[in-house]
Amino acid sequence: MITEKDKEYLKRCVTLAKTALNEGDEPFGSILVSENGEVLMEDYNHVAGGDHTQHPEFAIARWAATHMTPEERKKAVVYTSGEHCPMCSAAHGWVELGRIVYASSSAQLTEWYEDMGLEASNVYPLPIQEIIRDAIVDGPVDELAEEIRLLHYQKNMEV
Ligand code: ZN
Prior knowledge:
The chain is of the alpha/beta class. The chain has helices at 4-22, 56-67, 70-75, 86-94, 106-115, 142-156, and strands at residues 29-33, 39-44, 77-82, 100-104, 137-138.
């Protein structure tokens, strides 16, 4: 279930996705929130330099591995504008972070790419639950997904 508080965190992710877009990167943003609601880290996509592993959820997993205890990680929540890709899901699973809440799903992103006539990526858009055992996942949120859809169209359909 997605609460109003969850939506507030997701809105911050959408803002970060806009920042990424403005910097020439892909529109994705994510934040890491502690058990007591504190935002511990936020990041956005940085693939414009050519390194396509520079995803915010991956950066968050590695930050959490260095800065949090296993117990803190299990209780933390990762909010993200777009569902984790398999690489980021695996990183999240390896460091045993807790719940994931996403505003838009990988299935939606795949549809949008098809609609824009773009080629599918090299990496299969598998849902988080196919990568992480017993994952706790919530999403998408329709009104925010629509906002994110527009960012992807802005990125890829520039006139
Ligand atoms: Zn990723």
